[in-house]
Amino acid sequence: GKDPNHVPAGGQPIPVEQRLFATVFRMLKNATYDDAKDALQPYVGRFIDRNPSKNCYSTFLHELHLSDLLSKCLTLQAMQVRSLEKAIIFDSTAFSTSRLEIWNGSEYGARSRDARNSWYKAHSVTGALTNIVAGVVTSLNTGDECHDTKFFGELLEFARTAWNPKWALAD
Asked: Burial level of 85, CB count in 10 A (0-12/13-18/19+)?
């Protein structure tokens, strides 16, 4: 994992609790970066020191231990509508980022250079009636390994903690 005290090239890091607030806010608003930036502006100076950069949301996905914090916050707020939700929806979110991995190798005397994209994706379980997110799982995988179906079990546990679902929908 990354060093939580790492200072980005642009200056001081945004504290974890403020990054978590901004990420949950953006997810609950189902907002693009630009829309979230505008919507967060009234909270600058009250709940957060400054508006996060676009990379702030992407790097949050790189720090896999922070997805547990995000899911706990989302599950707690989802419990508030426990009596309303009967159906849940599994899907990936708009939060994803990739990184190109390149390595040189030699096997049996032949030199090779290989490359592949690694994806960080956020998968969620959402209430069908309220659109409230009950949990998020962050994946770091390549290819079929980051498909939503790989995370149904974990996401279902978040949904069961928050609600008592009778139906589940997935794409």
From this structure: buried
pLDDT, residue 143, reads 60
Please check the confidence at residue 84 and state whether its pLDDT lies above 50. yes
Question: C-alpha 102: how far from its chain's center?
Answer: 25
Token pair belonging to 89: 């929806």
74 CB contacts (<8 Å, ≥6 apart)? 24, 27, 133, 134, 135, 136, 158
pTM value is: 0.59
Averaged pLDDT for residues 75-89: 88
Of 78 and 64, which is predicted with more confidence?
78
Tokens for 41, please give them. 């502006």
- Tell me how far apart the alpha carbons of residues 102 and 110 are, in angstroms, rounded to a whole number: 17
Give the model's pLDDT for residue 112.
67
Residue 134 — φ and ψ, nearest 5°?
-95, -25
Residue 138 in contact with residue 120, Cβ under 8 Å? Answer: yes
d(CA 104, CA 127): 46
